[in-house]
Amino acid sequence: MLATIRSATLVGVWGHPVSVEVHVADGLPGFTVVGLPDASCREARDRVRAAIISSKLKWPPKRITVNLAPNDMPKSGAGLDLAVAVGVLAADEQVAPAALKNMGVLGQLGLDGSVRPVPGALPLVDAIGDAPVVVASRDSAVAELVARERVRPVNNLKEMFEALSGAAPWPEPPPAPAPRRVAPEPDLCDIAGQPLARWALEVAAAGGHHLLLVGPPGAGKTMLARRLVGLLPDLTPQESLEVTRVHSAAGLSLPDGLITRPPFRAPHHSSSMAALVGGGTHMARPGEVSAATSGVLFLDELGEFAPSVLDALRQPLEEGRIRVARSRGMIEHPARFLLVAAMNPCPCGAGGTVGCRCAPAALARYQRRLSGPFVDRLDLVVRVDRPDPADLLDARPSVSSAEVAERVAAARAEARKRGVARNADLQGSALEQHAPLSAEATRVLRSALDEGRLSARGLRRVQTVARTIRDLDDGGRELRAQDLLAALSLRMRLDSTGSMIHG
Prior knowledge:
Helix content is 37%, strand content 17%.
């Protein structure tokens, strides 16, 4: 007999519907899985057999063939285990096939028959559509975010068998867990001094501009960067769903509901390219740039990252998405993040000043780790020096993150009126319409272009930064020369000695 069960498999951050077709027929006993399964899918035959026997159910001593359709799409993971097991029971007529009509099934199986959660439960449940869906009890809270009352949580295969056969009702969802205690985000008032860096942080948050902080060790670069996420507004409902989907697909821990605050990701400088941009043989799992979607990606010790890894960020910095190509196809992941990075001006940290121990060759080698096209995509490059001792010993509180966040939220609201989420997204005619230049501002930009301090890409980025600076000032429509000069002052670059110069 033939039974067909609805399920789904994970490809990147998206779930794709899968029909699990199980055929049980007379013949030499065997179990075959076809339809481009990976190793974990093929191993389902052993897990399913052990789970059925452990649940005191009958294992049919017949020829069993499982087809995972569509046959041209790779299937990965053990999330199809429960669908295969129920399909075997239905094809062997131990469960009425009508009870499974238009019902989705997701879950891994333990050898004892327990149903375990699956990575990417949210996109998988979403892919099944409007049908009721059976999931592991531990996945019910995530599944209810998209399926709501259609979720059928089970703890083991026996519970599902009894519910399908009418011997028992569907189990009740587990009680909602106690709210987690969320650690407060670091506050900007903890930073002593650093007025320029604090202003750059506010501009970056308000306009969504990528920021690089360059300075000696102990100047406070990391402290500043970690406070950027606290200046950002809460996620919109659409952003919350997207971020939660990505984190679910990546196997990251989720809160009790949707993620509502911008994520903060800080990968180590030894991270590989696959870890940063995503990849994998079958699943093409999302990387750190996707996990930071709608939030902040912090790259500390930027000069220690492999140059090839940093150059892989060019596309997501420009387009807000990353394409991971493999022999079996290409996967596109969201990667719309705000980059903030920190680095020393040279290997020893002194940056060409008195006391610098770096040989010219070592300094040149260090500078080459950041390619010109990568740096050109950074809107703000700011020097951060060690604070003045008087600022460190001054007990007066500085401006808090809450105060700055109010100004950031107002600037973001102005950007939404222009049809974009942030000023950094303004391009082409929209940029010319919403950021017109005064005659003096045009002369400032022409001078920077004539001197070779700006590329065509840099010109657009300086103009968007100036738009944000004007929004934070008085919100006027036309960009003034002082707005362009301020934007250029926040776009520094390193010379061959590690010192900061305009450009």
